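Hello,

I think I submitted the heme C job twice by accident. Can you confirm which output corresponds to this input? Input:
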Amino acid sequence: MDFSAGKWILIGLAMLIASAAVGYFSFAPPVESPPQAVLDDPVLLEGRSVFMSRCVPCHGAAGKGNGPMAASFGGEQVGDLTDGKWKHGDKPEDVLRVIRVGVSGTRMAPWGALLDDDQIRCVAAYCYFLSALPVPESLREADPGPAAGPR
Ligand code: HEC
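Support: Only one job matched these inputs. Its output is below.
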C-alpha cells in the first residue's frame, strides 16, 4: 500500500468517527441539567436525584403525572404533583406518609423499604418544589433518630 492510499484510509476513518460522534450527540436523550434553585439547595438536589431515578416513569420528569409508564395504566390517574392540590394532603406528614407507605389499591408503591429516611424527606421536599410551594422547614431537618450518635 503506498503512502497516499494509507492517508485516504486514515482520513476516511477520521470522518467515520466524527460522523458517529455527531450522530451520537444529536440523538442521545438530552440530559437536562437541574435548575439553579435546585443546584443551590442540597435537599432539593438529593430529592431530584431520587425523583429522577424512581418516580419519573409514572409521575413524569416535571411531576405532571404523564411519565412514560403512565399511559399504560388504563385509566388509573397518576395525579399531577405540580398543581399543589394533592389528593392525600399537602402537609409534610401527608406527603411523607404517601411516599413511605404508598396508596393501597393504586400503583403508588410504598417506598419505605427501598429509600432511607433522608431520601424520602428530600424527595418529599422536591414534590413541594415541583408544585412551586415553599419547602416546609421540617423536611429540611434530618431526624437524627434514637440510635444516632457520633460515628
Ligand atoms: C408505578 C408508578 C408510580 C411510581 C414509580 C411512583 N408513583 Fe407516586 N403515585 C402513583 C399513582 C398512581 C398515584 C395516585 C394514587 C392515588 O390515586 O391515590 C401516586 C401518588 C403520589 C403522591 C400523592 C399525590 C396526591 O395527590 O396526594 C405522591 C406525593 C407521590 N405519588 C410521590 C411519588 C414519589 C416521590 C415517587 C418516587 C419515589 C413516586 N411517587 C413513584 C404512581 C407512582
